[in-house]
What does this fold into?
Amino acid sequence: MNRNFIAVDIGATSGRVILGTYAGGRIAAECVRRFPNSILPLGGKYYWDIYALYSEIVRGLSEVGRRGVKVESIGIDTWGVDFACVAADGSLLSLPRSYRDPYTDGEPERFFGRIPRREVYERTGIQIMNFNTLYQLSAQRREGVSALRDAQSVLFMPDALSYMLTGEKVCEYTILSTSQLLDPRTKRIDGALLEAAGADQSLFPRIVMPGERVGVLRGDVAAETGLGAVTVIAVAGHDTASAVAAVPAKNERFAYLSSGTWSLMGIELREPVIGDGSFAMNFTNEGGVDGTVRFLKNITGMWLLEQCRAGWSREGRNYNYEDIMRMAESAPRSAAVIDPDDASFASPTDMAEAIRAYCRSHAIAEPCDDAAMVRLIFDSLAAKYGEVLARLQKVAPFEIDTLHVIGGGARNDLLNRLTAEATGVKVVAGPSEATALGNLMVQARAAGLVGSLAEMRRCVRESSELKTYEPSR
It folds into this structure.
C-alpha cells in the first residue's frame, strides 16, 4: 500500500513542494510546485518575504489536495541561521532579515569584546561566520530593532513556517544547531551567549528532535488545501541535515558534499570535535538525525556561478544548464585558481568583475571570456574540495574511502570528475534531490515504515540513480 508524505524544501534561491510516495521499501518524489525565493531589499536592508513563501506552500498543498491524495504528514526544511520574531498576540512582527544583509559585518569582532572568540567556539563548536544567529541577535540589539525588542518568541525559518501552518511553536534541533547558540554536548541553548547578545532564553520555544510531532494544519489551512487535519512533523529542519540523512552510504567511512548555492563538506560523527585543530581550520559541529554531529566546513558553492549568470543575463547573454556545461568542457583547465570563500565574493554587485578583480590582485590571469570564467569557478571549487577533504582526513576516526556528492551538484559531470581528481577518493554522485528525500524519510520513519538511519539510507540508495567517479591514476 502506498503511503504519502509532503516535503517542503526551501533554499536561498528557490523552494519546492514535493509529494513523496513510499511503497515496497522504496521512496519516489514528485515536485508538484516550484517557486522562487529571493532577497527583498527594503530601505537599505535585506529581508525574506515569508508571507510569499507561506502562500506558495499553501498553493502546493492545495495542488495535492485537488488530486484527492491521502497525506500522512508534512515536513519543512530551509536554510539555516535566519529567524522570525513573533508578538504576544501571535502575529509576526517583521519580515525576517536575510543572512546576506551586511548589518552583521564586523559584529563577531564586537561580540568577542564580551566573550572571546576561542571561548565562543569552545562553547558551541560552530564555525565563526558573521551571519550566524548569535551575531544577528547581537546586531539587532545594537540597532535597536523593534521587532526583536517586542518579540515574545523567536522562530527559525522552518519553525516559523510550521507555526504559520499549525499555530504551534517549536525549536527544531538541527536548525538550532546552525545558530551558534547551542551547546553541542548538552544539546541545549547556551544562556551565557544569549545574554551577551542581549537576548533571553525565554524567546525560544521547546526544542524538538527530527521526527517529533509539531501539530496539525490549522482549520482554515486544512479547509483551503482540502487536505484536512494533516500532521506536521519536525523533520531535520536544516536543509543540509535533511540532505545528509539521505546520503546513500553503505557504511560510516564516507564524507559528504552537499552541493548547491553553498557547498558543505563534512563527515558524520557521534560526538563533536572541538579543539585546537578544528578551531584553527574553522570547522563546524552541527546537529544531524539521531543526535549525530555533522562535522563540516561551509564552502561558497554555486553562488559564484549563479551570480555570474545573473549578471550575464542583465547584459543579454542567457545560458541554460546545458550551455554552461558545454562552455566549461570547451575551456582549457585554469592555470591557477581563486579562493571561493574570499570575502569579496560574499555579495558583490557584479560577481564576474569581483572574480576578475581577485585575479588581478593575486597575479592570476583573468578569464578571457564567459566559458573561461565558468571553468575557473569549477576548477576552483574542485581545488577547494580537495583541500577541505585533506583536512577532514586528519580528523576523521576512520579512513574516508568515498565522497558522496548530493544535491544539485550531483548532476555536474565535469565538476564531479574534477572533484575525484582533486580529492583522490571515489566520488558517488546522487541523489540530486537528497534534501527532499531526507525530509520524506524522516516522516516515513515517524510513521513507522523504516527504523534506523541505516535503513533510511538503504531505502534512498535503492530508490536512486547513482553515478561513480574513480580518481584518475
Q: What stands out?
A: The first strand starts at residue 3 and ends at 10. The chain is about 40% helix and 20% strand.
